[in-house]
């Protein structure tokens, strides 16, 4: 009798503890890896606005600026250090993992062994961690997960994927591994294939970087040398749309998701179309074209991305078109130049 009473009492205490936890825990605790890159810093700002400053932890291997440190929690962790990641997840009671650490398409070709380690071994670490601690995990993929054998205009959600960069290979690997863990272990793996993401922050060494660099160079020097041919069409998106897509997608109930991996996009344009849109804001643009090895990468990627499945399944809808993207970038890059001064 005593035993039964004690058992009941303990259970009530347990249930109370769980419900107090549930009440207190309105927001998920989110860890962003590779968080000091182009997307991570903006992503932390966006999600901190939604879930609270201390609920979003940035991590990377880079020494943070004082602004980053003042903005919210920042921790050093190498994506190749499983135990280090494990400690953060446990100590900070992490619920969601946003995995941004990667070497992008152009830089990955310059150091394939490092790209294999960071992009593939890093993915092995985070996916095991997510499985072990039952985390919701978001891993971005890319238009670079397609190759010359894929249909390019438009590129549907499901089609041939035979990329020719180590970056693309690592992203196909991540997509497949995530889907496998979902079917095999019930892991809540979520992945969006982003196009080139445009923001005023410096890009990380990709093929779509020209669409950012052009604003910085034109506003600083009045001229830009483009490494892609003028008629190279690629899918693109302003960071505002990318982060809204990520945030909305993370909140979609599992019952609505038909897939774990979705294409998303906002627009497609060529360098000459971007220049034409910019020339409505700046007079006398001097653009020269000198294609390099990034041209071969761009020529193997989608030109127009079909995101109809994301629109259908979770109501994805882009908001920033080319005209607005140019307006936003003009304003944001000018602000950065004022803040940091001319180089
Ligand atoms: N920016 C885009 O246009 C775009 C488009 C599609 C997909 N994505 C994906 O989004 C993610 C973030 O992209 P981004 O543009 O911010 O890239 P980025 O290159 O700017 O940032 C990547 C970050 O990873 C970090 N990193 C590198 N090695 C690491 C290690 N060993 N341990 C921990 N961190 C490490 C870097 O320090 C860097 O801060 C990437 O996975 C990328 O593939 C980006
Ligand atoms: C497209 C995207 O994955 C990245 N910006 C790159 O060009 O590599």
Short description:
This protein is an alpha/beta fold and 343 residues long. It has 13 helices and 13 strands. The longest helix has 23 residues, at 2-24.
Structural overview:
The protein has 343 residues and is of the alpha/beta class. The protein is built from 13 helices and 13 strands. The protein has helices at residues 2-24, 38-51, 66-71, 82-91, 105-110, 112-132, 166-185, 210-221, 239-251, 271-278, 293-299, 308-314, 322-340, and strands at residues 30-33, 56-60, 74-76, 96-99, 136-138, 141-142, 189-194, 196-198, 223-226, 234-238, 261-263, 267-269, 286-289. Strands 1, 2, 3, 4, 5, 6, 7 and 11 form an 8-stranded parallel β-sheet that branches. A 3-stranded mixed β-sheet has the order 8-10-12. A two-stranded parallel ribbon has the order 9-13. Strand 2, helix 3 and strand 3 (74-76) form a beta-alpha-beta unit. Helix 8 crosses helix 13. The N and C termini lie far apart (79 Å). The model is unreliable at 1-24 (pLDDT under 50). Threonine binds next to loops.
| Overall strand count | 13
Order of helices and strands: HEHEHEHEHHEEHEEHEEHEEHEHHH
What is the 3D shape? globular
- Unreliably modeled segments: 1-24
Family: Belongs to the NAD(P)-dependent epimerase/dehydratase family.
GO molecular function: L-threonine 3-dehydrogenase activity
Organism: Galleria mellonella (Greater wax moth)
Domain NAD-dependent epimerase/dehydratase: 30-264
Secondary-structure map with pairings?
Layout: H1 2-24, E1 30-33, H2 38-51, E2 56-60, H3 66-71, E3 74-76, H4 82-91, E4 96-99, H5 105-110, H6 112-132, E5 136-138, E6 141-142, H7 166-185, E7 189-194, E8 196-198, H8 210-221, E9 223-226, E10 234-238, H9 239-251, E11 261-263, E12 267-269, H10 271-278, E13 286-289, H11 293-299, H12 308-314, H13 322-340
Parallel strand pairs: 1-2, 1-4, 2-3, 4-5, 5-7, 6-7, 7-11, 8-10, 9-13
Antiparallel strand pairs: 10-12
Helix pairs in contact: 2-9, 6-7, 8-13
Nicotinamide-adenine-dinucleotide binds near residues 36, 39, 40 and 196.
